[in-house]
Each structure stands twice: as structure tokens, then as C-alpha cells.
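Escalated from tier 1: 2-acetamido-2-deoxy-beta-D-glucopyranose holo job.
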Amino acid sequence: MNWFIILSLFFIWNFQQCHCCMKWKRSADNCECPDIRDRYIDKWNEIKGYCCMKIRRSVDICDCPDIRDRDDNRNEINKTELWYTEGPGCARNLSCGIHYRTFLAFNFHESENPLPDAASDPFAEALSTLDLYHDTPPARTLNLFSYYGIICENKDWYATKYPLGFAYNGTDYKRKYMATGGEYKGSKSRVWLFTCKMPREFL
Ligand SMILES: *[C@@H]1O[C@H](CO)[C@@H](O)[C@H](O)[C@H]1NC(C)=O
Ligand SMILES: *[C@@H]1O[C@H](CO)[C@@H](O)[C@H](O)[C@H]1NC(C)=O
Ligand SMILES: *[C@@H]1O[C@H](CO)[C@@H](O)[C@H](O)[C@H]1NC(C)=O
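Tier 2 regenerated the structure:
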């Protein structure tokens, strides 16, 4: 009888420990999303050009492989140049640093934003400024996480805010703008890439 009580107590204690440990793990666990800094890309136009050339030759949907893995396009990303801090869970600050323009690229096929009819490819750039000329003053520094409302879901990063909308390339070769009043707030798009541009660098 004594043994039975001791054994029961032991099991109860064990269960409590485990329960407690699971709870602790759930609240303070590590984020399930990958390091978002690995989605930094430098040569957006070249990459987009390459990818779209490929689509036109093959399928309609631009389901390009992860071009960041290609040796000739690999960025020598210097993560220390980005302002980045991690908080509990998936809380993050990510910023390009002083005097950079920022943009985030997504693929309409991985987005709840509707693909426009006359788009040459399914990529869009969510902008931090609509002022894209060479002589414009530097754009303000922004935290991508709050500006684009980036969240972690199903082990991936999604933008949910597009304060100035997004730009895409039309079939008439013209750059088109969409939802520049931030209309698609709440609509999710997988963060494909992001980039930081120097003040005088054309997007
Ligand atoms: C990376 O950037 C930091 C900050 O700008 C700089 O101090 C460091 O030398 C750079 N590292 C490389 C390998 O370029
Ligand atoms: C983001 O930066 C702000 C201001 O420096 C800081 O108070 C906050 O704790 C940071 N959050 C994360 C998740 O790093
Ligand atoms: C924009 O679309 C035109 C026409 O389809 C294409 O020739 C051009 O390469 C595209 N530009 C970019 C940057 O994707």
C-alpha cells in the first residue's frame, strides 16, 4: 500500500513537472520561423529579369527556384549592416539602417493580394516610398516588422500591411502601382525577399 502511494505521488509529480515544462516551453519558446535576414537580396532587377525570362520560355506561373541559392546571384550579405534585434517568440526589429530605401518583394501566387490582369510576372514590390528618382532625399529608416506588419505563421514570414501599396511590371513595360492607399491591410503575402537601397540608387 505504501509503495502504491509513493508510486502514485511520483507519477503525479512527474505529470506536473511535464505539464509545467510544456507550458514554459510554449510561452518562451523559440520562434518557428527561419532567420528573415536570409531573405535579403541585393540585385532585385537582375534576379527578376532572369526569373521572368525563364517563365516566358516555359510555364505561365513564375514558380522560380530559390534564386538566392544560385552562385552567380548569391549576395554577400553582411548581416551586421542590418539593424536587427530579437525579442521573445517571433518579435523582431529589422531595419535597413540610416538613409536607405526599403522594399519587400512578394509573389502574387503566395499572396492573398489579387494578381492584376496586365502583369508581366507575378512579383510585386511593397514600397517604403513612391518617390523613386535619383535626386530624391533619402527615405526614412523603418522597421520592416511594424511597417509591413510581418508575422510568423506555419513556419514562414508573412507581410500583412502595405502602407503605400505595391508596384508591379505591366505587360506594356510600364511600372504600375496598386492599392497605394494601403487598401490591402490584413491580406497576407509570404515575404519572398527584401532589399535596402542606397539613397541615390534607383529601385
Ligand atoms: C559588415 O558591416 C559592418 C558594419 O557596417 C562592418 O563593420 C564590417 O566590417 C562588415 N563586414 C564585412 C565582412 O564586410
Ligand atoms: C525593437 O526596438 C525597440 C526600440 O529600440 C525596443 O524597445 C524593442 O524592445 C525592440 N523589440 C524587439 C523585438 O527587439
Ligand atoms: C517588364 O515587362 C516587360 C514586358 O513583358 C519585360 O520585357 C520586362 O523585362 C519587364 N521588366 C522587369 C523588370 O521585369
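The chain has one domain: 39-202.
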